[in-house]
Design a protein that fits this description.
Number of strands of chain A: 0
Strand content of chain B: 15-25%
Helix content of chain A: 55-70%
CATH topology of chain B: Rossmann fold
CATH class of chain B: Alpha Beta
CATH superfamily of chain B: SGNH hydrolase
Largest sheet of chain A: none
Oligomer: heterodimer
Structural class of chain B: alpha/beta
Number of domains of chain A: 3
Radius of gyration of chain A: 23 Å
Largest interface: A-B, 34 and 37 residues
CATH architecture of chain B: 3-Layer(aba) Sandwich
Order of helices and strands of chain A: HHHHHHHHHHHHHHHHHH
Radius of gyration of chain B: 22 Å
Distance between the termini of chain A: 17 Å
Number of helices of chain A: 18
Shape of chain B: globular
Largest sheet of chain B: 5 strands, parallel
Chain lengths: 467, 364
Amino acid sequence: MIFTSLTFIVFFGLLLAAFGLLRGNRAKQNLLLVASYLFYGAWNPAYLLLIAACSLWSWGLGFGIRHAATKARRLCYLWGSLGLSLGALGYFKYAGFFVENTAWLLDLPDTEPLEILLPVGISFFTFQAMSYSIDLYRRRIEPCASLRRFLLYVAFFPQLVAGPIVRATEFLPQLERPLRLERRNIVIGSQIFLAGMLQKLLIADQLAPFVDRLFADPLLYDSLTLWLGLASYTIQIFCDFSGYSLMAIGSARMLGFLLPENFRMPYLSRSIAEFWRRWHMSLSFWMRDYVYISLGGNRVGPIRTYINLAATMLFTGLWHGASWNFVFWGAAHGVGLIIHRLWRQRRQSQDKPGLIGQSAGWALTLLFVMLLWIPFRAPDFMTAYLYLSGLFGPSGEVSWAPPTILLLIAIVIGWHLVWLGVRVQGRTLFPVARPWRAVPATVLFTAILALILFAPIGTTPFIYFQF
Amino acid sequence: MRRSLLFLRLAVILLFLLAGTELFLRQWVLTPSRQTFDPQLGFTYLGDRDILHTNEGRARIRLNSLGLNAAPLPEIRAAAERLPTVLVLGDSYTEALQVARDRNFVSLAAQAAELNLVNAGRSGLGPLHYPALFTRLRDTIAPDALIICLTQGDIADARQTPYTLVRREGHNTISALNLSATANNRLRSFIEPLIHHSALATLMMRRSALVIGGWRWPWDDWPFPNAVTAQNRGAAQNPGTASHTDPQNPDDVYSAIIFQLAALRSEIPTALLYIPTFRYAAGGVILETAQSRRDWHIFEAIAAELSLPLVHAGDAMRADYARDHMPLTGFRNSTLGHGHLNENGHRAVAETLAAVARKLIARP
């Protein structure tokens, strides 16, 4: 069930109605839990067992982590708890990759590839379960006494399949207070959801066919077209994932839940470090808190700090999928972060850079991020190489600049410039207090009409579903 | 009172927005529907109307009084007095709403061959429909010869076309073929008149049809994804097809196509032109798709059985791509290398069409 499908709209409408009619927190939590399992089961009911097993295991061992008498026992419980999540992740996501590469290393060409269906959202719900266990170990939270609440924390449907990755500290306390439908939440939530839909359906999905064609055969097109394709993919992946996150945040908000922000105009970043504070924030902060800091962070000397940075980014790359492309992408970002850190330390002046310095930083960062989207998007290294060489060297002869693509790129640039100029800090598109005033109403009607008239027919999966 | 004012204000905003959208759509996206229901052909176009096509390319074309993408009838008749007239039947490739009229392959071939070629292509039609279309145009246009443009997908479309074969009693030979409207087209007969005056209504109706056609219940996939195949859904949505002809029996479809083409051949000198579909790769490499090759072989067999001249337009297309390295299908606002012929494609096909037309007219 995809957020942009009619099925989801009907499902969510019915859920909202039932949520409003039910009395009592327990009943509402039960309803949300059943709805979340239905949402996930609509894709493949067999994998409901996996999500339930991960949740039960982490919940059960959580008590052991909290109450074990010695540190060694707590550590045992922690690794036991993490074991199932990591094992599931390892088997479903990386086993095929491991077998394929081992067979290549040992020169066993007859090895059959493993055919394992990757459970949607496994990288997200296992990370949520793991963060709960690690937070318990670090004594940041108390064990969740209610199994129902914990099951709901892991499986809460808005963020189940593609994030944002929610921490137990952020979500579980929200289940303690009275759950009810509030007009203000519905208004804000629906606006955030609509903004996400606009990003996904009117920007990302419109750019996708153009990008797909270019990456299918980069040799065919000239440099300018390839640059246009790269700019399009840069926007597509942002609007696709940011759109999903907004729809998740919006639908959760309508039900009265606050989910963390996942994107904050990442392409306006002036350094690669800033980029990672603005892009997929729930993942980068997760990696910072649970991988980078666990490895010692920046308190272990400069060399180890660089190694920790590189290792964290390597994990981040690998998190996106079992492919050398992602490993390379993560490693390259790690190198970028190390270079940025070195440069920052050697820089004498502590003053904020001037406009020229900031602009140069922004341009370099954007170029670096864009170029690294090539191995991220390309199906293999060879295609990535061909695309990259087409950008800077000899390229094909076909020149292709669809007007719609140029218009969409201009719209996105305009949107960023407006944000930069006005510095809108709110999370909603329209003024919340009086959404039916003339200007917001016109914008709202135009947005709905544009979706009705121009959104692609049929459901297109989100890019991050594959991770 | 305040609430009424609020609703009034919202209504005014909505009204202005809808009017603005209607103007925007007419100028940039599409014209109101020009189609009218036809029990045999599904639909025909209303005559003497403009039609704006922007899905692939961008062209605003004035249909003639017969609803064809061809010159006005008086011009066709005037040319017929000077030059031999050849009627060109085909599907959307021939109709060519994507490019300006003087750039489509029928117009270009007419100039090259110095013949009066009349474009009677119409999207959605195939070999089973052409006798019905020819009968309607025969008296008005009075052609001297007929060229039928065939494309990849014509065979598959014929399988989806609802028709009834009448066979001679006691024999297996076909005596007649009756086309009938699909349930979808019958529904359109009620809806089309409602949307003839609004581009917004036309767009909404076209999109609704796609949404309803592609609707899947949440339990379609239960208990596992892809349990309901696209083929099953297609069969379920077109029950009428199965009642008239067995779509699994290709011989039935081939017999029907042979019967229809034979009917045309008996009335007028006829030739067939096959426009293949290619995949375009770097360095001027061009490969005909498997389905295109398969359909070509089927038409080759049919043409041999009927002793009809059949020409493959691929050589000219290959030469054009090898020379310019520009795909012959697709547009800047759609997908290059996919979809309908662009101006390069029309130029390449025109060469072959002109040659076919000249040869057909020169035949005794």
